[in-house]
Design brief:
- By secondary structure, the protein is α+β, with helices and mostly antiparallel strands.
- It has one domain (52-128, 137-266).
- The protein is 34% helix and 13% strand.
- It contains 6 helices and 7 strands, in the order H-E-E-H-H-E-H-E-E-H-E-E-H.
- Helix 2 packs across helix 3.
- It is elongated, with a radius of gyration of 32 Å.
Length: 271
């Protein structure tokens, strides 16, 4: 046994102690050593811990990205509904959809948006979620995340004492009567448990004031887990545009659901 054999045996012993598995290969009589390193248990645990830490760091960012994507889709739907309303107004002598008990605004606007998915905000999560219908429902019965302006303040000024929000159907809002179309809401996101089709400023509900406070979801997007007032929602404006409006910016310092100057100011709500 020479010095080279002793050196080789020593190296093999060190590799074995370090967790190396060696194999002998003798093609054509030549002797060659191959060694593949194996992880120790401690090394595997360290790698797993690092992966867990990275996953924990990335998870909030992924959640925020998903939420942002849903909010963008919802805003896109609001814009499509705004475009549908503008095209409707052009075809119907400058009037927004007529208020009706049947064939309401989702049905009247349907020829202009054509897909019932436009009526639904991806962030409108309901518990329990309704089952998908076996067949395509009529627009008035489809899953709906939006509510249209009932224009109460305009008709109260236009009709005076004859106006009653509960008994005056077949009303159509003239587009030209809206003095600030860029800052007047036509459609907005409603609460998930609300079955209202029309946002009635003068209709108290849920034991509170009008629908602008009780039926509207003002903080569906970008809000903290325990603070809805830090977020906002998407709206269609009278000029056909879609806009994200912060929670308090909808009703204060002006109530953007109102048309007339008096009610825009006096029905402002800071909470």
């Amino acid at each position: 046994m020479n010095d080279d054999d002793d050196m080789e045996r020593t190296v093999d012993t060190m590799r074995a102690r370090r967790g190396c598995a060696c194999a002998l290969n003798e093609p054509g009589g030549a002797t060659r050593k191959f060694c593949s390193a194996a992880f120790t248990l401690i090394e595997l645990l360290v790698v797993i811990a690092i992966i867990a830490i990275l996953a924990g760091l990335l998870s909030p960012a992924i959640s925020r990205a998903k939420e942002k994507g849903k909010a963008i889709k919802c805003l896109s739907n609001a814009r499509q509904l705004g475009l549908a309303a503008v095209m409707y107004v052009d075809d119907y002598k400058g009037l927004f959809p007529v208020r009706a008990d049947n064939n309401r605004w989702p049905t009247q606007l349907y020829p202009y948006y054509r897909s019932l998915e436009v009526l639904r905000c991806p962030d409108d999560i309901r518990k329990p979620m309704p089952r998908p219908p076996l067949k395509t429902p009529p627009p008035d019965e489809a899953f709906r995340s939006y509510i249209i302006n009932g224009w109460n303040d305009y008709f109260r000024e236009a009709l005076g004492g004859r106006y009653d929000v509960n008994s005056t159907p077949n009303q159509a809002m003239p587009q030209l009567a809206i003095r600030q179309p860029v800052d007047t809401v036509v459609l907005g996101e409603k609460k998930g448990d609300s079955d209202h089709f029309y946002m009635d400023l003068f209709e108290p509900s849920r034991g509170g004031r009008g629908n602008d406070v009780t039926e509207i979801e003002r903080g569906r997007h970008s809000s903290g887990p325990n603070n809805l007032k830090s977020g906002g929602s998407n709206y269609t404006m009278a000029d056909g545009s879609g806009r994200f409006i912060k929670y308090r910016g909808l009703l204060y310092p002006l109530n953007l659901w109102a048309v007339t100057d008096y009610y825009r100011t006096n029905y402002a709500f800071s909470n």
